Amino acid sequence: MARRALITGITGQDGSYLAEHLLDQGYDVWGLVRGQANPRVSRVRRLLQDVQLVRGDLLDQGSLISAVERVQPDEVYNLGAISFVPMSWEQAELTAEVTGMGVLRMLEAIRVCSGITASRTPGSGQIRFYQASSSEMFGQVRETPQNERTPFHPRSPYGVAKAYGHFLTQNYRESYGMFAVSGILFNHESPRRGAEFVTRKVTLGAARIKLGLATELRLGNLSARRDWGYAGDYVRAMRLMLQAPVPEDYVIGTGRTQSVRELVIAAFEAAQLDWERYVVADQALHRPAEVDLLCADPKKARVQLGWEPTVSFEELVAMMVEADLRLLSEGADPEQDSSWP
Ligand code: NAP
Ligand code: G4F
């Protein structure tokens, strides 16, 4: 019988790529959707026609229990979160509830539905659980590159909430023997990335300028460095982690790091534009506390899971610029969430 997966965050970037990957692998895929009239659900219905939808919200314990009871999943991928770091200062409590406490509610739903009440042999739990942990937990980094043993020093309410979810996942593994793992994923991007994140903001900005739809692009800290990879590669790692013989956490990244300035140069080059004529550095877009440098050491994932990224930074930026040029030329409005390449 086909394995059955339940994905929270199905309307987001990673949810869409993971759903496609699991469908390709022969899974029955279910996506958790929330809200009375969430406009992003229609996009999922259009792009992911073979995904079945079930209602639920990470803020609502009962809804998660009902969803797990209905779907009876073999694997649960918890991708749902408030994931935009600046928003986590503006709505810190909501971020803690969704991005942090949401992990507790999902783990509890699995524990209750599986009838787990006491400690078991590690890995013996029936439902396998993946938590979307983040390199934001490393924050003010203690060493470079960062690996599974690098200590955390989160720099935003988002990073703190992710650290809670990470340790809780570890704790449910140790307390109840659940097959519960975290992927500590570094930044990953794609043409489906939200327009608020810097890569997409830059590729959309370059495309708009190229097409005469804008005259400048305002950005914050150009010196921050990130390890940027392709989302399509990273969702493969999520599935591999749940197929491993024992539950363990893994760092997923490319091992290369670039600055926002280098990102801008690459994107404007792909659009054949001189970035210095259009990019305006805006102090108002700087964060209260910045993560200056992230760079992954993905050796464990390479050795134990056989996982490798396949798309380079340069290929990724070119892919995104090309997709945005096409989208805007067709008259689509990426801010409206209606279009998804
Ligand atoms: P994304 O595009 O922002 O998607 C976030 C998803 O969370 C959306 O589907 C959203 O659904 C859902 N969500 C928000 N509030 C919810 C709630 N109360 N209940 C249930 N679902 C809720 O994020 P992404 O880039 O795909 O990332 C997926 C996960 O990986 C996130 O947890 C993120 O923090 C983590 N992560 C991402 C990266 C990265 O570089 N992309 C790196 C490390 C970790 P609605 O349509 O209902 O709002
Ligand atoms: O693209 P960003 O907003 O991503 P950030 O904060 O690194 O977070 C993303 O990656 C995390 C993994 O490390 C995920 F957990 C998280 O959910 C999210 O997907 O910003 C990247 C960098 C920052 O240093 C920021 O200060 O770009 C800098 N930046 C400079 N100007 C800007 C801008 N970021 C945004 N969003 N907008 C700007 O105008």
UniProtKB/TrEMBL annotation:
Its cofactor is NADP(+). InterPro entries: GDP_Man_deHydtase (IPR006368), NAD(P)-bd_dom (IPR016040), NAD(P)-bd_dom_sf (IPR036291). GO terms for molecular function: GDP-mannose 4,6-dehydratase activity; NADP+ binding. This is GDP-mannose 4,6-dehydratase. Pfam families: GDP_Man_Dehyd. It catalyses: GDP-alpha-D-mannose = GDP-4-dehydro-alpha-D-rhamnose + H2O. GO terms for biological process: 'de novo' GDP-L-fucose biosynthetic process. Keywords: Lyase, NADP. Transmembrane segments: none annotated. Residues 6-320 form the NAD(P)-binding domain. CDD domains: GDP_MD_SDR_e. The lineage of its organism: Bacteria, Bacillati, Actinomycetota, Actinomycetes, Streptosporangiales. It is an enzyme of class 4 (lyase). The keyword Nucleus does not apply. Catalyzes the conversion of GDP-D-mannose to GDP-4-dehydro-6-deoxy-D-mannose.
